[in-house]
Amino acid sequence: MIEAMKDNKGDMFMARVSKEMLIGEILQVGGSGAAAILMRAGMHCVGCPSAQGETLEEAAMVHGMDSEGLVEELNLYMDQESA
User: Fold this and answer.
1) pLDDT at residue 63 is higher than 80
2) What pTM was estimated for this model as a whole?
């Protein structure tokens, strides 16, 4: 389940994915469900150490994928998990 996070003021918010997020950050907040989405899309390098420092947009570009579509799918998953 996706848990609420605290911002620097201590206010709670739900994690949202953006194309500027690092793959490592997405995996941290989305866990195995996010990894499964990325793997299913063809991004089989999610466990690669170099992928951890790459943005979703950069990884999508390398793999010839639409980063906006991945953002939508990942956020839909996170919304469902946090409900």
Assistant:
1) yes
2) 0.79
